[in-house]
Amino acid sequence: MALLEKIKRHCLSKKVIDAHTDQQVGYDTLTPKIITDDSVKPYFDALDFAFTKQDVKNIAITGPYGAGKSTVILSYLQSRLKKDFITVSLADFSLSGKSDKNLLDNSEIEMSILQQILYKENKDKLPDSRIDRIQNRNKKHVTSLFFTVLSVVAPLILLTTVVFPRKILSLFSLENGVLNTIINAYPERLIISIILSIISLFFIVRVASKA
Where are the transmembrane segments (predicted)? Predict the structure, then answer.
């Protein structure tokens, strides 16, 4: 009975909320929305034109409050650029603790814009940046780290096997005939050793350059 009473109260409360929502149909929010119909096509055409001109360095979208400037920008980014963009917000600026907006200079604004770009971009894409970022230890990161380590360790193991075949291959209980054939193949071992050394050196330098 207690369970039935809870279900009944939940249904009644939902009806009250739905009725209250229906009474507010005439209201709308000013938050940016993604629009995909033809109403934004003239704005998209104007932005496409601006982006195709090499001499255009700055693009501004102006209009009164609530006119839909952010909606046009967000809809265009989602339609044309997908995820290939970075947002920079004036609200995120931290300008030396100054509270007076009249004291802001160009160098501080440029530094704040640069910091936002560097913080929001992946560290792997900007390996020379000195700014430390909080890395997301997700499955993709772990997989990438695994293959990076494997690309360094695997050539080194193979190189050690080629240079010292008797010590390494004896651990696998190979037949003496097979073991002697590998040991006596000196020219082939030399060529393989050089190739593996170059591969190992390449991956070591690659990992070190990202550190």
Answer: 142-164, 190-208
Q: CA of 25: how far to CAs of 12, 15, 17, 29, 176, in Å?
A: 21, 16, 13, 11, 86
What are the DSSP calls for 22-56, one per residue? HTTTT----S-----SGGGHHHHHHHHHHHH-TT-
Count Cβ neighbours within 10 Å for each residue of 139-170 and write b for 16 or more, e otherwise: eeeeeeeeeeeebbeebeebbebbeebeeeee
Distance CA 33, CA 27 (A): 15
- In which band, very low, low, confident or very high, does the pLDDT at 34 lie, cut at 50, 70 and 90? confident
- CA dist 159 and 174 (Å) reads 19
Q: What is the pLDDT of residues 97-142, one digit of tens each?
A: 555 555 567 777 777 787 777 777 766 666 666 666 666 677 777 8
Helix or strand holding residue 92 (H, E): none
**Unique residue bearing structure tokens 């010292």:** 164
In this structure, what token pair is assigned to residue 65? 């409050």
Share of the chain above pLDDT 90, in %: 1
Indicate the pTM of the whole model.
Answer: 0.46
Q: What would the two tokens of residue 92 be?
A: 């995120």
- Give the closest residue to 188 by CA, choosing from 153, 154, 205, 163: 163
